[in-house]
Every structure is written in C-alpha cells, then in structure tokens.
Write a structure and sequence with these properties.
Order of helices and strands: HHHHHHHHHEHHEEHEEEEH
Distance between the termini: 51 Å
Structural class: alpha+beta
Number of strands: 7
Radius of gyration: 22 Å
Strand content: 5-15%
Helix content: 40-55%
Shape: globular
Length: 370
Amino acid sequence: MAEESETHKAAGNDFFKSGEYLKAAASYTKAIKLQPENHVYYSNRSQSFLKLNKVTKALDDADKCISLAPDFVKGYHRKATALHAMGEPAKTDEAVEVLLSALRSGVEEKELVRLGVQIKGRSFVQLVDAQRKAANPPTEPPAASEQASVASQATDLAAKPTGSPAAPGEPPFLPFPDFASVPAASLKSKASPAAETPPPKGQEADAAQKPIWELDPEGFAVNSIQWILRDFVSDGTVPTVCYLQPCKPKRGAEAPPVGHVNIGPAFSSPETLLNCAEFLRQQAAGCSAQAAVVVVRKSTMAYPCVWKGKSKSEWPVGDKDDGVFMQLESPKMRMMFFTVLKEKKSSSRAVGDTIPLDIEQFAIFPRLFE
C-alpha cells in the first residue's frame, strides 16, 4: 500500500512540475486514500489547490497537515498563504499569527520569516524580534551589531528567492517569478536605449505639461489610466503592468523616466501574486519611487476575483462586464478604481464610467509601501 501511494505521489509531483495542477491534486488524493495519515500528501495537495485558486480546500489540507505533523514547516507555510489569499485584512492578520505561532513553537524559521516578509513587509521581522525578546529577555542591552543584524533580516530574506524543497520530489517553496522590469536601468533613474518595452504612449506629452515627479499620487494615477485607456481605444490592448512614479532628479541630472514593470503572471494564483508584490516592493525601493499604479484587465485575471460575492451597491458592474482595475499605492494613500471597457464585434471600442471602489474590499494587490 505504501509503495502504491508513493507511486501516486510521484505522479502528482510530475503533474505539478508540468503545470497540470488539477491532475496533480487528483494524484495526491489517490495517495491520501491509501495512506490518510501521511502529512506530506496533504501538504502537496494544498499546494496544488493554491495553484488552482481553491483557497478553502488548500486551507483545509494545510490544517490537516499541521494536525498530523506539528513540526512540519510547510504545513504552516501553506496555511498562511491560503489565509492571505482570501484577500481579507482579518485573514491576513490571521496568517501573520499562524507564522508567529509556528515560530514560537520552534518550527524551522527561514521560510516562514520569508513568507511573513512577503505578507507583512519588513515589519514582520520586527514582530519576530519582539517575540524573541519577550520569550528571552536580554540581561544586557543588545550590541549595535546585533541590532543592525536584526534590522537587515527582512532585506536579506526578501532578496534570496531560491526555492528550497523539504523532501525529494515534493513541490518546493516557489521562488519569485521572473517578472520583467522595463527598462531595467530606469529603476536607477537612467534612461536605457535597450528597453524591451517602450514607455506608455503619450508619456512624453503629458510629462511636458508638468514633470511627472511633481504630480501628487492621485495625479500620477490619473495620468497612468489615461495612457492605458488611450491605448485601448487605439488598438484594443491593455497591458498588465505596474507604473512607478520617479523621484525628483538631482540638479543637473537627466529627467528620470516612469518605471514600467510588466507583471503578466501576477494574477494567475495566490502565490504568484505574493511573489510579484515582494518583487515590486524591491523595485519601488530601488528607484525611490513616490507611488505605484497597478493596472490589469478584469477578463485576464484568474485571481483574485474581488468582484465575486459582492452586492450591487458594492459592485455596481455586471460580473460579466469587462474593464480595467487600477490600484494606486503610495506611502500615505491607497485608492482603487474600475473603468468599464466596451468592445463590439465591429472592432469599435469605447470607454465607460470610472468607478471608485473601497480599497479594503477590492484591493487586488497587497501594500507596496510601508
């Protein structure tokens, strides 16, 4: 029986590696039926369910995994990821507590702290440090070198996106996707002639009226959505992109271009969204961005489907209607909008109403600024 269940597990791993997550989940289910007390099978199936955006099922499997193996780090990793993927602030807080509780109990910390940084930002390391100090009060004030070490943990962990499998053949903690930042040199406020993707059409004309770095965050968001809608009416395209508002250049320096980060894979699953969010935090910090605008077309999103289950007063647009989500992120402001797109078979295109949305209910992206 054990040999047969391992055969199903191996098949599930092969399906997972090839991106066939539904078949992977089915194979792990067969293994579970043969050996229902094997915690790894539940962990693997939870990972598959996360990829399929079946968050509740992923959470159930993570809970079962933890109950069978309280010292198994991936059970807590899966549970925290599933809770955060539910898109509710209370669930994100619960995810953070799951990670902190696991760390208190002595579970291996490296991957849990990395996930905490992805979910909560650098403040998670401060929570971990406070928890450690509460459990082991220092007899002497910590040395300056020790304080600096603690302060740098978040940066170090976020900058090492390598996967780390726990068992042979088991789906690993996933590394950050290879999101393309275009142009790469623009993140250092230098123009790049080798940009893979051109800047938004009309950027130069808009910036000529007022330097882009002098706009307030809301003004930058307005400019961004105008670029997007102009392109849609012109050729029907809507990129999945994050625009980064540059900081004011130093005297005598070149005018910095708008940061342009292609994030196409971000909205395919909870994990890719988390990974992309951490990537964008790094990019925003690297170019000292003042604000960020995330843009995605509704019809291209597999996750998060924030419009589902909402009342008509909360979501005044039909579930089947298409449009553009735009989320503004800045250190002091967060805003959410949806613009209706109208496209007919005759290839005629028009832009409908732009609707402000409650950021707490409709955020499609975690916070990008502390």
